[in-house]
Adenylate kinase
Amino acid sequence: MNLLIMGLPGAGKGTQAAKIVEKFGIIHISTGDMFRSAITNQTKMGILAKSYMDKGELVPDEVTNGIVKERLAQADVSEKGFLLDGYPRTIEQADALDAILSELDMSLDGVVNIEVDPSLLLERLSGRIIHRETGETFHKVFNPPAAGYDEKDYYQREDDKPETVKRRLDINIAQGTPIIAHYRKKGIVHDIKGNDEIDAVFSNISKVISSL
């Protein structure tokens, strides 16, 4: 079983990915883990990636694609299948993944696409506040301070401010839309409503995966 999981920041992709891996016994392949492993093991692509990172430069697509190919070619993946998480991030990477899978005589069985209204994600992601004195973290809506919320006593990190979050969501939507369209043409996208409770969302995902 070879799967790809997609979803906007805050949609619960990481939580659901962990539950999928636990239940179905497939290999979780996330971009970050892949890079760390390739660099630690000093693979050809890992050494190349590190040379860019050490200079503070972005790792080019061809190197990222090479690291993905190295990982997908490993024995545990061919034995158990994979759940790709965080790749592809662009339509060019999606095309490269098609070519990689073809070279390795593998195929993608399904794309789990967790859908949550961006306006809800904006509220979810931009509500985090930090108490100036104690450093304790709260959420304006989901975990407000018991004593009430006085703005002068709290601050937001730049990453949590609504305008920053909206920009991040907009970028992710712009990048993700053509990728989803690419896989829809192949008939392998399964849309999952992500607004429900975690277990309810996972139940729906499980039904989809079990049917593949």
The first strand starts at residue 2 and ends at 7. The first helix runs from residue 13 to 24. DSSP finds nine helices and eight strands in the chain.
